[in-house]
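queue> pop job 88
queue> type: inverse folding (structure -> sequence)
queue> payload:
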């Protein structure tokens, strides 16, 4: 944690800031390890300050002792006033521009103006935070690996239940129950259970469609463990799979393998995507793969960096990305198979243990 705080504090110098305010729940957790629905982590040249209300004050004082000064906000003394009094002559305060609302930004400026400081500027600093979060340390990767183990165990328990007559909604309910029973804090996103023709929609809405013999069923889900996300997709067949279904499935597996083989630190994200996309295009399905090869994940299930056609930046060592090509035949079926990999200087580490071969249940 001390190294993480040091790296966050370096943003002050990099952007010539008098203070850096983290107001989003994800960034607060990243900086403090505390899960709170309210609070501000404020970094100044001379202090780390955590401000929260009565609900979390005891936990904050216990967990952050020696790392942060902790102050309690209240109706009588709001967080605006605490920050303003710490930085009465601030020129530039870093904020998370993608988190702070326009109304809140106006409130901060008014608080400073009321105290005679009308020149303070709120400076976007989330790019620096994203760069820090993109590189996972050993503890973060361990938490994500455990989240993956929980997800895989849940899927293993659900697969024997799949049969004609069960609805997509029932499958989803069983999956969520087993994720929580096996140690997940919560789901990392609403699971996707897409059967038969619904599978041609990459992010299909959950329905009461009944599974039928001969269906492909795409199951895309994940969970949170110690604040960190897992994400996986497997496509299984109910009862039987046609030759076409098996052929499409194998093309997706080949594309996934090609993208993963191209993935290592220093490679531009779009080049990883292109390696997988070429396999699908060469097989004649290029127009039916309309999303990116992968996205970053960590404290959020979608966060930078990405491995998609628009990612122009080299990916850093320690980045964790999904590997999830797919082929979607409108109104018929879809196939997506997803792993999660950690990029290293020499290649990658696959966090997935679940088999990738086509399973017919």
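queue> result:
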């Amino acid at each position: 944690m001390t190294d993480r705080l040091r790296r966050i504090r370096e943003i002050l110098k990099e952007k010539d800031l008098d203070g850096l305010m983290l107001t989003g729940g994800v960034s607060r957790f990243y900086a403090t390890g505390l899960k709170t629905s309210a609070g501000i982590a404020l970094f100044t040249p001379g202090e780390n300050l955590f401000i929260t209300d009565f609900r979390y004050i005891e936990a904050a004082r216990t967990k952050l002792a020696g790392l942060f000064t902790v102050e309690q906000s209240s109706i009588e003394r709001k967080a605006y006033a605490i920050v303003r009094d710490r930085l009465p002559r601030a020129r530039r305060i870093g904020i998370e521009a993608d988190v702070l609302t326009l109304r809140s930004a106006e409130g901060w400026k008014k608080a400073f103006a009321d105290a005679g400081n009308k020149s303070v500027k709120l400076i976007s600093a989330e790019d620096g935070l994203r760069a820090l979060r993109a590189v996972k340390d050993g503890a973060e990767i361990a938490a994500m690996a455990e989240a993956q183990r929980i997800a895989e165990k849940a899927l293993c328990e659900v697969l024997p239940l799949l049969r004609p007559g069960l609805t997509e909604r029932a499958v989803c309910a069983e999956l969520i129950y087993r994720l929580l029973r096996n140690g997940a804090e919560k789901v990392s996103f609403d699971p996707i259970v897409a059967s038969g023709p619904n599978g041609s929609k990459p992010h299909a809405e959950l329905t009461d469609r009944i599974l039928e013999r001969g269906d492909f069923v795409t199951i895309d889900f994940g969970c949170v463990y110690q604040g960190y996300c897992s994400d996986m997709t497997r496509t299984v067949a109910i009862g039987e799979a046609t030759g076409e279904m098996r052929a499409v499935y194998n093309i997706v597996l080949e594309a996934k393998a090609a993208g993963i083989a191209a993935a290592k630190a220093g490679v531009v994200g779009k080049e990883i995507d292109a390696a997988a996309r070429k396999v699908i295009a060469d097989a004649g399905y290029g127009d039916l793969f309309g999303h990116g090869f992968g996205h970053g994940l960590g404290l959020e299930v979608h966060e930078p960096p990405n491995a998609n056609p628009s990612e122009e930046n080299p990916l850093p060592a320690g980045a964790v990305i999904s590997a999830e090509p797919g082929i979607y035949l409108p109104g018929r079926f879809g196939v997506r198979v997803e792993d999660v990999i950690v990029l290293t200087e020499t290649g990658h580490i696959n966090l997935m243990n679940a088999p990738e071969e086509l399973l017919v249940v």
